[in-house]
Amino acid sequence: MNRSEYKNFYDKVGKLNGWDFSQIQTISDGVKWDFYKEVIQRCTKSDILLDIGTGGGEALLSIADHALLLVGIDHSTDMIETAKTNLQKSKRTNVRFLQMDAEQLDFPESFFNVVSCRHSEFNAMEVAKVLVNDGLFFTQQVSDNDKLNLKRAFGRGQQWGVVEGILRDKYLSELAEAGFIDIQSSEFNVVEYYKSYEDLVFLLKHTPIIPEFGEYDNDFDILRKFAEDNQTEKGIMTNSKRFMIIASNNKAN
Predict the structure, then answer these.
(1) How many CA atoms lie less than 13 Å away from 126 in the CB half-sphere?
(2) Distance, CA of 146 to CA of 159 (rounded, Å)
(3) What mean pLDDT is predicted for residues 11-18?
(4) 3-class DSSP state for residue 67?
(5) What is the rounded distance in angstroms from the CA atom of residue 231 to the CA atom of residue 242?
């Protein structure tokens, strides 16, 4: 997918579901961290936090007690509409959601103490601009070889054919160029089990793992065979591969 196709896809998903995957029944063995727990462990209740690519806002609302003000942005208008609906239901008073592109963060300089970004693009220079000196930036991204056996089955997929590590190295380089220091990178690659074929269908219809899933005549046949071939006692087996970067802003640069 190109950038325009991704935007159209996320708009559609945002209108239907937001970024809520709670109905999927899945387990993973050996996950090293929970991203938003990592964020709040380094947050204080006086901090102002920005979440880039917030989707339907479900994750941000779940950590609302851990900061003074939390602002979630997403380039998708429909995602933000879903997030605002979720906010109204939650009755939280210290969370705001705005439609905004990560390439141009329209906030005052040095406004946020913490910036988080999970599974979304970001601009390192823009993040550095809106972070206070010594402010922290957290990002978790999908690694190139995530769901590798699934992509092999389809012969296509998100970041399919990309050299492993190229995305992580790109972000590390951009953060260093933007003046971030103490840049730490972690990674995990764990076995993941989906309880049913229907769980996989929901996943693929609401993520870009297999681009245009369901629009090819044999997609569902391929998925059924994949489910049969990878069925275990724990569920249908694939892998979850993620990397996380934590970096400190350095205004002196």
Answers:
(1) 15
(2) 9
(3) 50
(4) coil
(5) 23
What's the CA gap between 231 and 237, in Å, rounded?
Answer: 6
Report pTM: 0.89
Q: What is the pLDDT of residue 145?
A: 92
Angle at 58 between CA 56 and CA 52, to 5 degrees: 65
Backbone angles phi, psi at 183, to 5 degrees: -85, 115
Strand, helix or coil for residue 14? helix
Helices (H), the chain: 3-16, 35-41, 58-62, 77-90, 124-130, 148-154, 166-177, 197-205, 219-229
Residue bearing the bigger pLDDT, 29 or 196 = 196
Contact 130, 108 (CB under 8 A): yes
Which tokens sit at 148?
């590798």
150 closest CA partner among 197, 184, 105, 108: 197
Summarised one tens digit per residue, pLDDT across range 115-135 is 999 999 999 999 999 999 999
The enclosing H or E element of 48 equals strand 48-52
Closest residue by Cα to residue 220 from 240, 193, 200: 200
- pLDDT, tens digit (0-9, with 9 covering 90-100), for 168-191: 999 999 999 999 999 999 999 999
CA distance 164 to 34: 23
CA torsion, points 35, 88, 21, 8, in degrees to nearest 10?
Answer: -100
Average pLDDT over residues 86-98: 97
pLDDT exceeds 60 at position 15: no
Residue-wise burial string across 195-211, b where 16 or more C-beta atoms lie within 10 A, e elsewhere: eebebbbbbbebbbbbb
